[in-house]
Backbone:
């Protein structure tokens, strides 16, 4: 199972298409709200093989603040189950803060820059493939 924080529907579709093609049968769960992910992710960590986190999340007008990926990072490092994490945010400053949280807690973490039309297939997937094959981070 792969757990993903991502609010962009095009990116979600790209993650789904890539996983369907490259890892058929791999379960994936998505959250577009960091606070919902924090509330719900715990029971899924034992079956999880990798986690991928965006930082900036869209807030529709009048909707409650969904939080951000740094909140999820700070939550995850308090959990006893350690899983490899990929930070896939274009917000360089906040992504570095997220990576730092994982590094300080000795969690395996990688950074992928989400640029171009094929970054999920060309940049993100090879990182996931290495994690799934047991190469670690």
Residues:
């Amino acid at each position: 199972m792969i757990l993903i924080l991502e609010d962009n529907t095009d990116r979600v579709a790209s993650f789904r298409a890539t996983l369907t093609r490259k890892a058929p049968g791999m379960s994936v769960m998505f959250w577009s709200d960091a606070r919902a992910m924090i509330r719900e992710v715990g029971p899924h960590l034992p079956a999880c093989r990798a986690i991928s986190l965006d930082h900036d999340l869209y807030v529709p007008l009048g909707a409650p603040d969904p939080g951000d990926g740094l909140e999820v990072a700070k939550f995850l490092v308090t959990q006893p189950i350690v899983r490899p994490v990929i930070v896939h945010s274009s917000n360089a400053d906040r992504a570095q803060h997220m990576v730092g949280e994982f590094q300080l807690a000795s969690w395996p973490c990688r950074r992928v820059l989400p640029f171009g039309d094929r970054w999920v297939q060309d940049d993100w997937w090879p990182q996931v493939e290495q994690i799934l094959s047991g190469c670690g981070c």
Observations:
- The chain has one domain: 2-132.
- The chain is about 40% helix and 15% strand.
- The radius of gyration is 14 Å.
